[in-house]
Structures are given as structure tokens and as C-alpha cells.
Amino acid sequence: MSRRNISRNNGADTQPQQREWRGSRPGSIKVSRSGAILAALGLLFMGYGASRGEMPVVLEKAINICMECIGIG
């Protein structure tokens, strides 16, 4: 005995339903207020660290960590 897939709508609506976009266009990026504040705060702290001359220190630490992972340092 073979099984048949019996559809209640007799083949109508065989295409998947498309998502309805409300308030924005497809492909647009919605930025939440908290996300924008956190991004701005991150940039502010990066600028503060760069103004204090912390970039060479961070680069040296990153190089040391990479060398330890590879097994050279």
C-alpha cells in the first residue's frame, strides 16, 4: 500500500508565504537606539585609548598571544 500526501487545499498555495515587511524596506538595516549608543561608546573609548598611546601596547600583546598560540614565542 503506498502513501499519498493529501493536501487540504488541493494544490492551491503551493508557494511559501512571503514575509510581510512593515515599517522598513527589505534589505534596509534597522538600528536600535541602544545599539547605536553602544557603538558610539565603543568608538569613544577607542579614541580615548588611541589618544593615550595604547595602540602599540595592544599590538604588542596581540603579537605575543599569536606567537604563543603558534608555539614560537
Summary, kept brief:
This protein has helices at residues 33-51, 55-70.
Describe this structure in words.
- By secondary structure, this protein is an all-alpha fold.
- It has 2 helices and no strands.
From the spread of the alpha carbons, the general shape counts as: flat
Let me know the average pLDDT: 79
Radius of gyration: 27 Å
Low-confidence stretches: none
Helix-strand category: mainly alpha
Helix content: 40-55%
Total number of strands? 0
Spell the H/E element sequence. Answer: HH
Sheet bearing the most strands, described?
none
**What fraction of residues sit in β-strands?**
under 5%
The first-to-last residue Cα distance is 69 Å
Number of helices: 2
Summarize the SSE layout with pairings:
Elements: H1 33-51, H2 55-70
Keywords for this entry:
73 residues, 0% strand, mainly alpha, 48% helix, 2 helices
